[in-house]
Amino acid sequence: MSDREIPEQYLEGYARILAEVAATGRRLTRDELASRRALGEQAAEAGYSLRSLVIAHLAAARGAWPARGADADGALAAVQQAVDAFAEGYERAQRMAVRQEEAARREFIDDLLYGRSDLGRLAERAERFGLRLSHEHAVAVARGPVTYEEGDPVPRQVERALIARFGDRSVLLTTKDGRLLCIAPGHQQDVLTHFAKQAHAATDGGQVAVGRPQSGPGGVVQSYEEALNALEIAERLNMDDPVLRASDLLVYPVLARDRQAMADLVHNTLGPLTEARGGAGPLLDTLTAYFDSGCVAAEAARRLSLSVRALTYRLERIHRLTGADPGDPAHRYMLQTAVIGARLLDWPGSAA
């Protein structure tokens, strides 16, 4: 729109003001400055570029420049005042448009992730932001040591990196509840992988979870919730992987789906550990390290900063209290499942 000819309406009264100032040496009045600001707002709303508008003002000033002997310095000061007021109005309209766009974007994100809008209308609004909700989409969520808002340096850094790599692909980058979000077409896993890499670096080692591709407006919500659940599971199980994929963690939601059954398993299997000196915590940590190390006693002992002999004693103590032997394949699955359940339920710190 910058190449369009600037209509005379946005220069209305400009030549007259210059002529009067050159003749009298006065400054622009409050009403004249207000009229310039109003015209600047109107020009911004009409889509004209500020550069073209300034050029039009300078060209009009040349055409209306006072004859020799008149107050040229006063006329130049008037040009400066008029253009400054015009630009102020233009920028004010631009800021208002940005705020309105941000508000519309934020409302769309909220409606999209919480399913609070008519699906047909939501799909129409999505196209404005480059998303076609009839296709598959996947959501990646990144969390860091602090919370982030749109416009903060970290989201801007990640967005610049994505644009530099992928241009204007149908990708929506935003923030929600202090986390970074990337919504991308389900078949463009390279976008989400690059987002995860950039977000991990920009958030000083933050963790990123990627939901599975899902179809339709509800699919975005489902993928988003999968990513959030993956982050929650990672926190409960002390997973420190920089990138988590919901598709690799499906066993945990399955285990936690029947909370009461899981609680019964934990209490019946691990409940006797609470009778140990020091409580169940150290023995539960021992089982966790043992299973996480592939049931290799030396590696588990290293992780716990124990001697192998001390670790072996703990495993024997667990066997005596629970009746289940961690080294026996017949008992191992039940114990390991109970340990996972204990971590998901925050047992024994929780009354679950």
Descriptive report:
With 352 residues, this protein is an alpha+beta fold. It has 14 helices and 6 strands. The chain has helices spanning 14-24, 30-46, 50-63, 72-114, 119-128, 153-166, 189-202, 216-236, 251-257, 259-270, 281-292, 297-304, 308-322, 329-344; strands at 136-143, 172-176, 179-185, 207-210, 214-215, 243-245. Strand 2 (172-176) and strand 3 (179-185) form a beta hairpin. The two termini are 63 Å apart.
Distance between the termini: 63 Å
| SS element count, helices | 14
Unreliable segments (pLDDT under 50, ≥5 consecutive)? none
Q: What fraction, in percent, of the residue positions are helical?
A: 55-70%
Overall geometry comes to elongated
Q: Biggest β-sheet: count, sense, barrel? A: 6 strands, mixed
Percent of residues in β-strands:
5-15%
Give the class from helix and strand content and strand pairing: alpha+beta
> Can you write the helix and strand succession as a string?
HHHHHEHEEHEEHEHHHHHH
The radius of gyration is 32 Å
Provide mean pLDDT, rounded.
87
Which terms summarize this structure?
352 residues; alpha+beta; 6-stranded mixed sheet; 61% helix
Write a brief caption for the model.
With 352 residues, the protein is of the alpha+beta class. Helices cover 61% and strands 8% of the residues. Strands 1, 2, 3, 4, 5 and 6 form a 6-stranded mixed beta sheet that branches.
